[in-house]
Write a structure and sequence with these properties.
The protein has 6 helices and 12 strands. By secondary structure, it is α/β, with parallel strands linked by helices.
């Protein structure tokens, strides 16, 4: 297949996955990686007993005279850039492998609360913030992916700065911004979003102990993406998101590679 045919086929797939009337011209689009790499420094929830582990099985020339490289890895479902399946906090809802692909490939809107989060690290998105965003842009389309830019991805790599506390096993002193429960209810009940995501450690903010956002979106069969990055490279509207989690059967979540196609 020629390069032109490959591009045409890719453009058809993206057009078919986007909202009616939206298409992606790959020649005039930039591809933005919204994922952190997984390694020994990947940040996990403080209650996780272990993190990402990569063990080398072989690297070098084999007895047959050719080079061969292979590893094994082990990791909790929830850490690094990953997806929370609805059943993570809502019984009898979709598990990771149940989530329809068309929920994971959608047009995105980006709501920027980084200024408010800088002033208040525990800030949560409110319905008023949604109304303010819609006044400046347009009503959030039904079925869209809503990404929340807090600016927290700039802290990635420094666990204490990112989570607010780096004490193993402790979650009583975490501080980072995210969605608020009332805003989440608006997004799932009135805007019928397919997915929400944030560039912080959780779709609930750090001080949350009841995880209402997880429960609201999970009950509505809406997955959540956590620990995204590079949201500052996306426009408020006009990007198409592809969120591809590892397909773990019956999983409560999974590591994910999340990319965006955005206008240049």
């Amino acid at each position: 297949m020629t390069r032109r045919l490959i591009i045409a086929a890719s453009a058809w797939i993206l057009t078919a996955s986007a909202a009616p009337g939206q298409s992606i011209d790959l020649a005039s689009s930039k591809v933005v990686d919204l994922s952190h790499a997984f390694d020994a420094n990947t940040i996990y929830w403080p209650t996780e007993a272990s993190g990402f582990q990569l063990k080398q099985e072989h690297k070098g020339v084999t007895k047959g005279g050719f080079f061969y490289y292979s590893n094994t890895f082990c990791a909790p479902e929830h850490g690094g850039t990953h997806i929370d399946a609805p059943m993570h906090f809502a019984e009898s809802r979709w598990t990771n492998s149940d989530i329809p692909l068309d929920r994971l490939i959608r047009p995105a809107v980006v709501i920027d609360i980084s200024g408010k989060a800088e002033a208040n690290p525990d800030y949560t998105l409110t319905p008023a913030d949604i109304a303010e965003w819609e006044a400046a842009h347009e009503r959030i389309p039904d079925g869209a992916i809503v990404l929340l830019r807090t600016g927290w991805s700039a802290r990635w790599g420094d666990k204490k700065a990112y989570l607010g506390d780096d004490t193993p096993g402790k979650i009583d002193n975490l501080h980072f911004p995210s969605f608020g429960a009332e805003a989440a209810a608006v997004l799932v009940s009135e805007r019928h979003v397919s997915l929400i995501g944030v560039d912080a450690a959780s779709v609930d903010n750090g001080p949350s102990k009841d995880f209402l956002v997880h429960r609201v979106i999970g009950g509505a069969n809406v997955p959540g993406l956590e620990n995204l990055t590079n949201l500052d490279q996306l426009p408020a509207t006009g990007a198409l998101i592809m969120a591809m989690p590892m397909k773990i059967a019956h999983g409560s979540g999974a590591p994910a590679r999340v990319i965006a196609f955005a206008p240049r």
